[in-house]
Design goal:
Elements: E1 2-7, H1 10-27, E2 32-35, H2 42-53, E3 63-66, E4 68-70, H3 81-88, E5 100-101, H4 110-124, E6 129-132, E7 154-157, H5 160-166, E8 179-182, H6 185-189, E9 194-198, H7 204-213, E10 231-236
Parallel strand pairs: 1-10, 2-3, 2-6, 3-5, 6-9, 9-10
Antiparallel strand pairs: 4-8, 7-8
Helix pairs in contact: 1-2
The structure holds fructose -6-phosphate.
Fructose -6-phosphate binds at residues 36-40, 67-68, 133-135, 139-142.
Length: 245
């Protein structure tokens, strides 16, 4: 069941998203947060850091599990997702870094890393809330549109459009990794609650398909969220351009 909240802009989306995380933390101090990277959740993390600084939330017992990581970037590379999480959240709040999990994109055996990561998700009992962004092509995590989608954490080849989208963060498009390790669709759906965020017109087509069509298709992986019982979609007016109201 998907509940949709349409807000004015990115800032309002970010505030509302942080409030959803706070609701979970206020009920469960030792919640498991499923986290995402990319430009979309940065404002949500800023709001969470503010709430922490104001004494409104406490991360001391929180554990986290991130969706994905590029394959082949060192952990301290400024475009690695481990670096992103440390920079945007973990280094700014009182979380125990040992309780934070991001797939290791530099493991000697990436297939084994994927299996181990899925075991970590299971050992935590799944996320209490999983934050997701969405690609312009409907990808969630790095589950790209295709004939088949992976169920569990696996190594995935990035689509050319995703490499192009993400090249804005790198010096040149050739520097963007071609592979990533990502939770699969079943890994994502293990979360007790899912919070999907989208801002901007480049997300409008994928969001329109997700919210209007009420059907699943591997051509837009986000549509599988319709199978989950508790999804909140917070989108701004631009991302909601094609949503039937
Ligand atoms: C990030 C992730 C990706 C992004 C998506 C949107 O951990 O899994 O699915 O959420 O590519 O990226 P932005 O937010 O940069 O538009």
């Amino acid at each position: 069941m998907i509940n949709t909240i349409i807000v004015k802009d990115y800032d309002e989306m970010s505030e509302k998203a942080a409030e959803e995380i706070c609701k979970v933390l206020s009920c469960k101090k030792n919640a498991i947060l499923g986290l995402a990277t990319g430009s979309t959740p940065i404002g949500m993390y800023e709001n969470l850091v503010k709430k922490y600084e104001n004494g409104n939330i406490d991360f001391s017992e929180v554990k986290t599990v991130n969706l994905d990581e590029y394959v082949g970037l060192e952990k301290d590379h400024d475009q690695s997702y481990r670096y992103f999480m440390d920079f945007n959240l973990f280094d700014k709040v009182n979380i125990n870094k040992e309780n934070t999990h991001v797939p290791n994109g530099n493991a000697v055996d990436m297939e084994e890393e994927a299996i181990l990561y899925e075991k970590i998700i299971d050992s935590l009992g799944g996320a209490d809330i999983q934050v997701l962004g969405i690609g312009g092509n409907g990808h969630v995590g790095f589950n790209e549109p295709d004939d088949k989608l992976s169920l569990y954490t696996s190594v995935v080849k990035l689509k050319d459009e995703t490499i192009k989208d993400n090249s804005r963060f790198f010096d040149s498009i050739d520097d963007v990794p071609k592979y990533a390790i990502s939770m699969g669709m079943a890994s994502i759906l293990k979360a007790k609650k899912i919070l999907l965020l989208a801002s901007g017109e480049n997300k409008a087509k994928a969001i329109g398909e997700l919210l209007n069509e009420k059907a699943v298709t591997t051509k837009n992986p986000s549509t599988f969220l319709g199978l989950h019982h508790d999804v909140i979609v917070i989108i701004d007016e631009k991302a909601a351009k094609y949503v039937k109201r």
